[in-house]
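Predict the holo structure. Ligand: FE2/S2 (inorganic) cluster.
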Amino acid sequence: MSSKPKDNKTPPETGLRKGLTSYGDKGFSLFLRKAFIKGAGYTNSALDRPVIGIINTGSAYNPCHGNMPQLLEAVKRGVMLAGGLSMEFPTISIHESFAAPTSMYLRNLMSMDTEEMLRAQPMDAVVMIGGCDKTVPAQMMGAASAGLPAIQLITGSMLTGSHRSERVGACTDCRRYWGKFRAGEIDETEKDEVNDQLVASVGTCSVMGTASTMACISEALGMTVPGGATPPAVTADRIRVAEETGACAVQMAKEGLTIDKILTADAFENAMRVLLAIGGSTNGIVHLAAIAGRMGLEIDLDALDKMGNETPVLVDLKPSGDHYMENFHDAGGMTTLLRELKPLLKLNTMTVTGRTLGEEIDAGPPSFKQDVVRKIDNPIYPRGSIAVLHGNLAPGGAIIKQSAANEKLMEHEGRAVVFENSEDLANRIDSPDLDVSADDIIVLKNIGPKGAPGMPEAGYIPIPMKLARAGVKDIVRISDGRMSGTAFGTIVLHVTPESAIGGPLAYVRNGDRIRLSVQNREISLLISDEELAKRANENPITPPTAERGYKKLFLDTVTQADKGVDFDFLRAAKMVGKTPSK
Ligand code: FES
């Protein structure tokens, strides 16, 4: 069991020898480290193996990660079978509905936690277990900056439930039933009844929300084992993926397959393609911009818009379609989708297996008849799900999820009904005295990256009670915030620059006319440049700051939506290009 070197050469800095604590004497640092770890009963033989860190994001506050114990056990088994030594450690965990003021406010903190723990602790590769919306992007952002071999393991989607014989799942159906309750279509008793059924097991939201979007994007980026995106949380398939992930991490460690070899401009292009084809969450763009920014790459939003012309929505999942994640998995998951998209993909990108995406697509199981992933000539929506808008209201761009919008409202001009912030909205949206009609455009300010802060998913502005009760199901809504990927409606989001730093949105007044033309990619405030400048001069905006702590760091350094809402000092020191790279 001796670990004495056989010659006088300095041993390579791998395993426990990596990143030694600074005591001024490297030999002593390693001696001390080994003494402590041996206190936990490890042998020299175990300690000489490649060390695979495993990030445990289990938390009682995070039911989307409720299968963490089973996943950890399976990953460790995979590591052990492949000859590695697993070292589990915790980081922050974030759940959408247990994070105030909003989970996005904490995503960068989780990315910093991830990055610094990967740097500080000795490991040759890391398995990052995440699932709930912000956790996967946070982990990839951190790993991208830390630079070591890293592989993503998704916790997997929840099962769907049943309410009075109707299949339901979080969170598109949460919003739908809440809308019914607000409209007086269901009573208090039924509201409570359906509440029991919307989340039928542990795991992430069962529709194409942000969690499912990021799972699919992870596989498209090459960051998961093939088939790693779609198995539901409580299935044997998910556990098998976990075991494979552990084994794959050992191989990555041995081969030195670092994350920069995987997260290339072409890999991000593939991810953008997949985002469009799955009808993915608009949050996916923000997260992709943040991850790419860590690698020194800017996401070209106008190129994304153009890609939409040749990338129809193929995956028939709520909220753009009808099915749930478990159906997508039964239909072959990402293998089926990637095979269909193959002519549009960059096939030479590297994946965690050490094989290219093209090789993995060719090695996938044979196709079979299914009705969730459509053929490219029979899409569920003829264009990409997301359109990028410009105009004097959003000089830095805005987006709309056109596949989840109302066709009749996508070319619309209307009168602005303005809310200054979330509180103003909460106070007045349901007032019987609110001067609003179905043809108006609701504008909500101050829910951008600095405004709220944290760019909450408050862009899904509720239909005013008086309109909802009159049967109005959709109305054009505009904000500088985000919306959940599980939401739907004609909703313009991510208006950049945001109102809290003096973007034009700040100067919209009640009664102004606004024009939305998705066809022309336009979002315009119909006032003259002179009038806009006059309003800005009369009411200069002071961006918010804070006295101390994380909030101060956040408000002083957070970037706008087009830069991924990352902190400016966390992005790569030097930007090296754009993606797609042409
Ligand atoms: Fe965790 Fe939806 S709340 S994925």
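The pocket of FE2/S2 (inorganic) cluster is lined by residues 64, 95-97, 132-133, 171, 204-205, 209, 211 (CB under 6 Å). The chain has 19 helices and 16 strands.
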